[in-house]
Write a structure and sequence with these properties.
By secondary structure, the chain is of the alpha+beta class. Helix content is about 15%, strand content about 35%. It has a single domain, classed as Cyclic phosphodiesterase (Cyclic Phosphodiesterase, Chain: A), CATH 3.90.1140.
Length: about 180
């Protein structure tokens, strides 16, 4: 109990003293190096696995643990399905990834691991049974229906390096 009579730590809160920070776990389709900075509108092609906020050490521990516990043998080879429109008023063109048991297990383990460290998951309605893996179309850069892509690693991406939300930086990747 804290001095105010409240529990010292509420259930589900991160035990890491560092403030929460925005992260995303992704599987890159395009080769992308650790530390390779890119603009928020210029992502390499990727499949988003989970977007969340938590302390940096907790983010690292959650992603590393989830990859180890997923049982998904990386690399995963997934098939690209039909195109769809996501986002506000359908303004984001994407290529869906056909259902893949290994990819779903990986997503579920990430979700569980982030929750276990007290992380806040963005758009929880798009997780679990609502998870629709996809690759966003980036102008001329895209994947095509029927294409098989290899997802070799899971990367932890900092969504605001040094507090700057205009940039993204992959911090670490797990095979």
């Amino acid at each position: 109990m804290g001095e105010d009579g409240e529990p010292a730590e509420a259930a589900g809160e991160s035990t890491d003293a560092a403030p929460a920070h925005p992260f995303v776990a992704v599987a890159f389709v395009d080769p992308t190096g650790i530390g390779q900075r890119f603009g928020k509108r210029h992502w390499p092609l990727h499949v988003t696995l989970l977007r969340f906020d938590t302390a940096p050490a907790a983010a690292h521990a959650a992603v590393a643990g989830a990859v180890a516990a997923s049982g998904a043998a990386l690399p995963l080879r997934v098939r690209i399905g039909a195109d769809a429109d996501f986002g506000y008023r359908g303004r984001v063109r994407v290529s869906l990834v056909e259902p893949d048991a290994g990819l779903q297990v990986l997503h579920d383990r990430l979700r569980e691991a982030v929750a276990a460290v007290g992380g806040r998951i963005h758009s929880p309605q798009h997780t679990g049974h609502g998870f629709r893996p996809h690759v966003s179309v980036q102008g001329e850069r895209r994947v095509h229906t029927g294409q098989v892509v290899t997802l070799a690693t899971v990367a932890l991406v900092d969504m605001a390096p040094d507090g700057d939300t205009d940039w993204r930086v992959p911090l670490e990747a797990w095979p």
